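Action item from last week, closing it out:
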Amino acid sequence: MTAVLETVRPGLEDLVTGVRAAVNRHADWRETARLVAAELRRHLPTPDVLTAEERLGDPDRYVSHTLYVEPGGTFSLVGLVWRPGQVTPIHDHVTWCVFGVLQGVEHEELYVERDDHLVRVGTNDNHVGEVSGFAPPGDIHRVRNSGDGVAISLHIYGTDISRVESSVRRVYDLPVLG
């Protein structure tokens, strides 16, 4: 693990302390996501928790910046930066996840798997200050920047993201109905 990942960035100290306490309750994944979401609501940082260069994003794809990994790997904080129109594939996750929007709007489409296809079961437009979380199973979604400017969100994953390299468990390439 690099020193950058072990050091808490300015503006994240209270959040890291709160998330650590929530995770150390050793609840199931759904309850942990609920507890961590409450901490993120209390300590949601501003976009300047990322450097000016990190906030620019990439013209070709959304980018993630690992901001902190808890020693022992129980959670990671990751900043995601999306330019207009950038989108994830439909995917699910290896662990619980909580996210908060720091800038812009992120449009989320929610799915369930049925036999050999996916069914879209909902959509959300997540605006600045909104926090949400989920835990597998039942966490299939796609996210896109639906706004005109750069969108930034902070994600907290229940794993050492520097070790597993991605929060994505599976990318879905099934027909979508609904």
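Closing note: The chain is about 20% helix and 35% strand.
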